[in-house]
C-alpha cells in the first residue's frame, strides 16, 4: 500500500471514530463533567470520580486528556448504565480544548486556575484563559460552571455566561469558602469548607497545603450534584492520590520520598518547596530535575537553588540543566550541593548516603522519570536510560524492571501471549459448544 492510500485509510478510520464518538455522546444519558485548568485538574478529576463512585456508576478519564483520548473513550467505551462521565481536558496550545469541549458538551465545567504553562504555545495569560474558557462556553443549557473565586482570569469566565455559576476559594465571596488550611508532613492536609449547608471539615491524604484547591473544586462539584456532605467527606478521606503527584513513598528502615516528578512548571516549584519547608522532619533533601517550558532565561535554576538550599540540608541537581544552579564552590566542597548527570547517578548517591526517616523530594518534569530513584528501593530497576521519550510514568509503563533496549521485544512478547490466551479461550468455548 503506497503512502497516499495509507493516508486516505488513516483519515477514514479517524473520521469513523469521530462519528462513533459523537453518536455515543448524543445517545448517552450520563451527566458529563469536564475539568480544565493550568494545574490541579488531574487531582480534581480523580477525586471527583472517586466521590461520585460512592453515589453512582462513574467513568473517570484522567491524565489521558487530549481530543484523541476523548474520541477513543467515547467510540470504544460502552456508556450504557453510566451515571457520570468525568473527563480531564488538557491544553497543549491554542485551539486544543475547544474541540474537546464541543464534543463533550458538558453538564458541568470545572476550571481550577490560569497560569502561564506551555509558554512557547501561549505566550500570555490572556491566551491561556481564552483557551480554558471554551469549556465553560460549551456547557449545555442549564449547565453549571464551578470556578476558582481567587483567580481573576477564572472568575472572569462567569461574567458573560448564561449558565449557573458556583465559586470556591479563600475569598469571602466564594460560595464554597475554604479556611483553616493545615499540612505539615507527616501531618496530612486538613481544612474546612463553609457553604450554604454549613461547615464541613475535611481530612485528606495529601502532604501539602496547595492541594486544598483541587479538593475544594471537587467537593463543590460533588455537593452541587447532590452527593450528601457526609459521603463527600468520607470519600475525600479514602482517596488514593495519583502516582507521582506529591505521592508519598516510604521505605521501611530507609528514607521517605515525596514523588512530584510528573510536571514541573515554574509556577509550581515554590509550592513543592513550601511543602518541604513545612515538613516536620529532621533531615531533608531536594532533588531537582528539569523545569518545564517557561518564560525567561535558565537563571531560574539559580533562583530555585537559592530557595532550596535554605530548606534542605542537601540539594541535588540532575539533567541537562544541572550546571545552571549557580551553587558556590563552598556548597560543592561541603556536599551541600551535588550536580549529577543522570537519575541512576542520583539513585546510587542516595543509596550510599541515605539516613532512615529522612525526607527526599523528587521534583522534575516527566522526561527524566525521577520516580525510579524511589522505586529502586523496593524493585530491581533495570531501565535507567536518562530520557526514554515516554510520557507516562514508570509505574504506568510497568517496564522499569526491564532494560530499555529490551522494551520493544518484551511488549511484543506480552501481546503474543495475550493473543494466544484469547485464541485458547475461543477454542475452548467452541469445543464446549460441540460437546453439548
UniProtKB/TrEMBL annotation:
<dbReference type="InterPro" id="IPR036565">
    <property type="entry name" value="Mur-like_cat_sf"/>
</dbReference>
<protein>
    <submittedName>
        <fullName>Alanine racemase/UDP-N-acetylmuramoyl-tripeptide--D-alanyl-D-alanine ligase</fullName>
    </submittedName>
</protein>
<dbReference type="InterPro" id="IPR051046">
    <property type="entry name" value="MurCDEF_CellWall_CoF430Synth"/>
</dbReference>
<dbReference type="InterPro" id="IPR036615">
    <property type="entry name" value="Mur_ligase_C_dom_sf"/>
</dbReference>
<keyword id="KW-0547">Nucleotide-binding</keyword>
<dbReference type="GO" id="GO:0016881">
    <property type="term" value="F:acid-amino acid ligase activity"/>
</dbReference>
<dbReference type="GO" id="GO:0005524">
    <property type="term" value="F:ATP binding"/>
</dbReference>
<keyword id="KW-0067">ATP-binding</keyword>
<dbReference type="Pfam" id="PF08245">
    <property type="entry name" value="Mur_ligase_M"/>
</dbReference>
<dbReference type="InterPro" id="IPR013221">
    <property type="entry name" value="Mur_ligase_cen"/>
</dbReference>
<feature type="domain" description="Mur ligase central">
    <location>
        <begin position="35"/>
        <end position="222"/>
    </location>
</feature>
<keyword id="KW-0436">Ligase</keyword>
Amino acid at each position: 500500500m503506497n503512502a497516499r492510500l495509507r493516508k486516505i485509510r488513516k483519515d477514514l478510520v479517524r473520521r469513523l471514530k469521530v462519528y462513533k464518538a459523537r453518536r455515543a455522546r448524543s445517545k448517552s444519558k450520563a451527566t458529563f463533567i469536564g475539568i480544565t485548568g493550568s494545574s490541579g485538574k488531574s487531582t480534581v478529576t480523580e477525586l471527583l470520580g472517586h466521590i461520585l463512585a460512592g453515589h453512582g456508576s462513574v467513568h473517570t478519564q484522567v491524565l489521558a486528556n487530549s481530543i484523541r483520548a476523548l474520541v477513543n473513550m467515547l467510540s470504544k467505551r460502552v456508556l450504557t448504565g453510566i451515571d457520570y462521565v468525568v473527563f480531564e481536558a488538557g491544553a497543549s496550545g491554542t485551539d486544543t480544548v475547544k474541540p474537546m469541549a464541543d464534543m463533550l458538551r458538558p453538564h458541568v465545567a470545572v476550571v481550577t486556575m490560569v497560569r502561564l504553562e506551555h509558554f512557547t504555545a501561549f505566550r500570555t495569560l490572556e491566551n491561556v484563559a481564552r483557551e480554558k474558557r471554551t469549556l465553560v462556553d460549551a456547557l449545555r443549557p442549564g449547565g453549571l460552571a464551578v470556578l476558582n473565586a481567587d483567580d481573576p482570569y477564572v472568575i472572569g469566565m462567569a461574567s458573560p455566561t448564561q449558565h449557573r455559576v458556583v465559586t470556591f476559594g479563600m475569598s469571602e465571596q466564594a460560595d464554597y469558602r475554604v479556611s483553616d488550611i493545615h499540612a505539615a508532613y507527616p501531618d496530612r492536609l486538613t481544612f474546612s469548607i463553609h457553604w450554604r449547608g454549613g461547615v464541613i471539615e475535611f481530612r485528606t491524604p495529601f502532604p501539602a497545603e496547595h492541594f486544598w484547591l483541587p479538593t475544594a473544586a471537587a467537593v463543590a462539584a460533588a455537593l452541587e450534584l447532590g452527593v450528601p456532605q457526609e459521603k463527600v467527606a468520607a470519600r475525600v478521606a479514602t482517596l488514593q492520590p495519583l502516582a507521582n503527584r506529591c505521592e508519598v513513598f516510604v521505605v521501611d528502615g530507609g528514607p521517605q520520598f515525596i514523588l512530584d516528578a510528573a510536571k514541573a512548571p515554574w509556577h509550581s516549584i515554590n509550592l513543592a518547596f513550601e511543602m518541604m519547608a513545612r515538613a516536620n522532619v529532621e533531615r531533608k533533601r531536594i532533588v531537582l530535575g528539569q523545569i518545564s517550558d517557561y518564560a525567561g532565561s535558565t537563571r531560574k535554576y539559580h533562583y530555585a537553588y537559592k530557595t532550596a538550599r535554605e530548606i534542605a540540608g542537601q540539594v541535588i541537581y540532575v539533567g541537562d540543566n544541572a550546571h545552571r544552579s549557580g551553587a558556590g564552590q563552598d556548597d560543592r566542597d561541603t556536599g551541600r550541593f551535588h550536580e549529577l548527570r543522570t537519575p541512576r547517578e542520583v539513585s546510587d548517591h542516595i543509596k550510599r548516603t541515605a539516613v532512615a526517616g529522612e525526607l527526599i523530594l523528587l521534583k522534575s518534569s516527566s522526561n527524566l522519570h525521577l520516580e525510579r530513584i524511589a522505586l529502586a528501593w523496593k524493585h530491581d530497576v533495570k531501565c535507567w536510560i536518562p530520557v526514554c521519550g515516554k510520557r507516562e510514568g514508570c509505574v504506568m509503563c510497568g517496564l522499569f524492571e526491564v532494560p530499555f533496549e529490551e522494551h520493544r521485544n518484551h511488549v511484543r512478547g506480552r501481546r503474543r501471549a495475550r493473543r494466544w490466551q484469547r485464541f485458547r479461550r475461543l477454542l475452548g468455548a467452541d469445543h464446549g459448544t460441540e460437546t453439548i
